[in-house]
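We emphasize that the prediction below concerns an isolated chain of 373 residues; any contacts that depend on oligomerization or on bound cofactors are therefore not represented. The input was used exactly as deposited, without trimming of termini.
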Amino acid sequence: MVKRRVIKVGTSLLRGTYGRDTRTVIADLARSLAAEHSRQNLITLVTSGAVGLGCDSLNLIKRPTDVLSLQAAASIGQGRLITLYDAAFSEYNIRVGQVLLTRGDLASKRRYQNASRTLSQLLNWGAIPIVNENDTLATDELRFGDNDTLSALIAIAIKADELILLTDVEQLYSSDPRQDSNARPIDIVYDLAELEELESHTNGSEWGTGGITTKLAAARIATASGVRVRLADGRDPTVLDALFKGEARGTVFEPNSKLMGDRQSWLAHAIKIKGELTIDNESEKALLEGGASLLISGIINVRGTFGRKNTVRLVNLDGKEIAKGICIMSSQELEEMLEISNYQLERSFAYIPIPIVINKEQLILSIDTLQAE
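Result of the prediction step, given as a token string:
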């Protein structure tokens, strides 16, 4: 049976700070992935490294902090990065396809589907998609911020069986093993409740934007859609070979028993939250039990400034998040309507349906809420 796998490698590994330079790291990746590719399994690689390679080319001692310099460094580094991958995979007569994405590319259903179809076509052609965040053009508003989140969304988009996150530790621990000698290794995480109990105080390296925290977030996203996640030591050039053979390495996150669909995953994770709506008890019950749309009459309060078709968080009267959805109205329009008394509101819509604020097709219950059902 053909397996679909997404492998994610981060900047800290690609920079070759563990006795292997960048070219060697990429050559080892290509060797392992080419072997799996020869078994007719489908591989997608999500890679960081453009900014880091750009900084190397510019002889910068420290990674820039301003957006303009980061974008310029990414522009220089991205060409070097894809050239290295292309050369490495050419040794095995495998074509690669560069796919650069921002959060904006996944922020609408149509563009999400287009990205999914492009990746699927590359896989159908026998190519290996090389996916990276488009750091050259992305602003803070459109950035994923780390490729762990991006890799989880890509895994969902191509309906992957497995997501492998390569990192610079052997596996997940109960705490940071570099700071706590009593840290306990964790071999397997069975469900969301266990995942949520894991606490990590590990910070990303100077040259990376990830860390264990973002990998746990990626595991949360992917497992909610039925994708098994493995966290493994990317410093070991043989780790992928071992994983592909079925050996137990690193930490495994098993898929959740209650799964979200592709549309739900896209809506829940691909889009940035722009505001918050507090809803009454009746609306909460209607959403949780009846799968209803959210009406203007059920909104108690509006927080944040957002436009039409922006994504907002829905919270109940206790402040607990229960859902997210794409709001038909802007925050200003909602606030203006909320200033009208209930009596006036009822008279305004006496002969027509009360306006829908979030259509049920554009609304998804939060993962915690789904798990509690």
